[in-house]
């Protein structure tokens, strides 16, 4: 790990911090970087900065100067006290004309930008709390931005986006604050600032991090490692949990199928010993288990099928079992504990405290963000120590979709048989020991408050906005009382919200999510009869009159006075509308999704487009007659027929070839309104009207 550090181009050790190992020579002296040793404090416009030197025309201040090998920035960062991360300050920043790292209102972010091609890359992460956290990011022109937190890849932005507002154009490398005059402070600390003029590999990042903190075991991406004993020996407990943690780590990469992997994880949950867990052991077990879950979710043959919801229901039950074990078995003699972390699977917290130390009216998990669970302090036992384990899953909700309402315990959903249910928010879980005292009555108090932001797919959003649909949102949880996970809303009620979020009240703790069911609005029988009658009578009258029109043209075609282009246009327009009306009435006899319905949808598209095209021809012809009175009757038959029949044919062929599934599938024999295919008709029609 220190060989990686030795290859750095710039290195500022700053303070000698206990638990963070500097790069020292054989005499034990700290070795500083090759350029700009040390830093000093400068004041600019009333703001205090730490100045690292000027890097004009350098890869450090201008990413465009970077070669294909890229660049890496690394430092340790923490806030000075537990409350600092809740302050709505502009936060601590490291600024140059090429990159910026900042913490702002509960979100840490790295921004990297090049001026020549006006590009910006941005990646967000959870900012540090009162514990030293290692932040490292790499940038390469072909790979984009990668942010590592505590040695593990946390977030990326491979593509970037066009951006023109760059802020400070100077080439100085600074640490300090900017923004509102009233918020110019840094309630935090930095250490070990390092720059490599190349992008480190993930293995090198891990090597440096483990060497810097003196811990040689696999660690979480955001476990506050400063809570562990930072010695040069591995921090593995010498108790009954050690073989399980070791096995979880060693088995990574050996998983091949979902069934065997799930079986292995369930065996782990069953085999946990009923022994007290120390703080370090609880952290090691939690992180090792979540890493195994991460491997499970990355399996290439994790097929999305009818059993997917059941498989992930079992997976959540297994995670709950392990988390419940942690809450029940944390060492009773250990001191208060408050840890927040994240992995690719979930944000998590492990908390042990005495209720009297809770100075707030509610305990909230997670402490930041729009999705959370809130427990009123009055629900906690006043004299007993309480242990809380919370999980906010990042991606598991995607696997709970197309749930049959008859397979749930949600009576309201079961009333709409055949209309599937999907999870439309993060899945959030919390375990508390001992159980809080909650009201049995949902109109009483205290109750759990759950707020969840909706994560709608484009299809769900389109369905929800469709005025012909009714959206039902349910506050639900996975009920394992019968051995398998069944969605239920017993003991929960949706108090408020809209299409973007929901607020629920519940009288129990478990894992929660918002489920969405979209049901088409059904017309009353009398309305259906009325609309059907209007359609048939109106179309029949139209067909009758159009037929008379065409017959009239045919009978009088021998009269020379009507042998002009206007009557040809009239006849073609009448013919297009006539055929379209006949096809429309015929389409009512076929069910959506059938081959005849698809064929009729394509023909309807063509003939209705042709009707608009012939109206365009008629408009152009009348215009030419008024503007160009003499010679306006010269033959333009070829052009007119090309526009009237040729253009609609080209549009229909392209549309049907590229999106055949959009014809005759949803509710009727016409173009789909959900995936944008309807624009193949609406756009040409609007063009004709505009002309």
From TrEMBL:
The keyword Glycoprotein applies. Residues 531-691 form the G-protein coupled receptors family 2 profile domain. Residues 349-522 form the GAIN-B domain. Keywords: Cell membrane, Disulfide bond, Glycoprotein, Membrane, Receptor, Signal, Transmembrane, Transmembrane helix. GO terms for cellular component: plasma membrane. Pfam families: 7tm_2, GPS, Laminin_G_3. PROSITE patterns: G_PROTEIN_RECEP_F2_4, GAIN_B, PTX_2. This is Adhesion G-protein coupled receptor D1. It comes from Pachyramphus minor. The lineage of its organism: Eukaryota, Metazoa, Chordata, Craniata, Vertebrata.
